[in-house]
Amino acid sequence: MLSISPQGISPSPSPKPSGRKGSKKVRTGCVTCKIRKVKCDEAKPHCLRCIRTGRQCDGYTASSGSTPEPLALSSVPGVGFSSEQETHAFDYYRARSAKVLSGAIDASFWGGLVLKLSATEPAIRHAILAVSSLHECVEVKSATGRELDRRFAFREYGNAIRSLRNWGQRDESSAVPLLVCILFICIEFLADRDAAAQMHITQGRKILSSLADGRSPTMEMVKQTLVPIYARLSLASFLFGSRPATIPAHLKSWTEVPAVFATLEEARCGLYLLLDEGLQFSIQAHVVAFNPNADAEAMLTFKAEQQRLLTQLARWHAAFTVLTSMMPHSQGVENVQNLLRMYHQASFVWISTSLQCTEVAYDAHLPAFSAIISLASSIIGSLPANTRMEAFSFETELVAPIYWTVTKCRHPLLRRAALRLLTRDQMRNRRENLWHVRETTVIGARVIEKEEAEFEDGFSLPSSPEGSGSSPGSSSSSNDTRSSSLERQTSPSLKVHITQPPSLIPPPPSFTDPMSEEVSSDGFGPDLSASSDFSDEPSSPTTAAIEAMQQLDLSTIKANRLESPFGIPESRRIKNTVIGSTEGNGVWTTFFQEPGPREVEWKVSREFLRC
Asked: Where is this chain compositionally biased, Low complexity type (predicted)?
């Protein structure tokens, strides 16, 4: 899950020796494979050979020997490749990508199930070649700034798509398409194609929502292995405006949080299922909360559901505390625990404020914001000196909750402490699926700048020096430049009535065939230089401005700035920030604020922020 060092936290262990020399060989494997007298792959909880052939796996008996170790990367059956590129990509995946994607506790998926099925499923094999090649591109660029050719990766991606289409003509379970869809999501994350990634998440969740209840080995694998991954992908979906289908209750391990968790994986799965429900609830609750004509009974129903979710969160926290108090200490496991604690705090605030329309409501949750900052600092600080986190993570980990704290916590010192975490050397150039550290740092700093621009006691930011990101034709007078830029940014074409949540209608998820003509001739993906209605490019916060926001002198702050509402009235607070498309060295960002007097639409502005 957490991938915080170049070597990874928990590489897959090597298989144990089969026994002492001269000992009698014991036939191991599931009951079904023993009866059929074929070699069993001994996957848990059910043999993959049985699943692939549609047989009922009767499980393992006590005589099967000890529980097999997680799959060692070197033990994957060899697959014939037709080129050195294919061989290199497969070796890179086994030796590097699988470990990074696995993090501390997901080796059984990326280094186990995916690799095993790649031996017999062409769609999976082509997909991991694309994942590996793109991952190498990301790592080389992060380390050296050098761009690698991505045409091989997109070609393998196209081959995977074609193989999956052919697979769809066979009468088999939906486990393989669901797994391949996860690999496609990873490919789009690495290629930095937001719309296509959302399309695959939406499609995978749609397949999940259509699955009937069942007790087959395939369904057990879907429930135990794939559903938790799709639940965690909610953070890369809901928070970017997408609306994936609900995960059916019969695919969840339980509907009520148990009093005791057996493993850390079980606790993690439970939290993200709750978080998924909380995000679904928040979207629906906001529509009701902002509608002054909402039915009173509907509001009572939402309040009851809100209380149920908060009760389940409290139950989860109690069970999690019991579990962690009995677990042996290790830095990798503690980092995972701290990450879960962060998302527990964030979930509590999300759900608690989902029926409130004001930004001031967040001021009541300073303890939660403080905990998020402290836990994130502990994780980042656990890295050895002069070590950076992995350049890419499939999971949504630190960036989202830290950025959210910067934008929603108005305590001047706390939000700057969060911003400082995003600028730590260990986080430099970090990407967590769709979350980019550089983008979120600049956007978070801009939110602070916009909200605190009118303060008179140490909150104003230094003027941007001429040539350090100012828009073309701007003068050296920062205040005049900022004022005129904001005037140009206001868009009369973007109108959202105040009876609607302050947000844009999410664009439909879309997909561009990686081998289509829309892929640029240099092999580096689709052209992102689409025209925009906004030709002016206002200044983004400079490095000096970000440093000034981080290092606020306490002696310059009046006492009332450290108590809610921190000198920031509702009218000046950013109610929502929509991260848009990336173009060149910047990102389009849309901000929502309270409307002016006698206005009935949210004040909407759009800026191009240089990263």
From this structure: 1-11, 460-484, 529-541
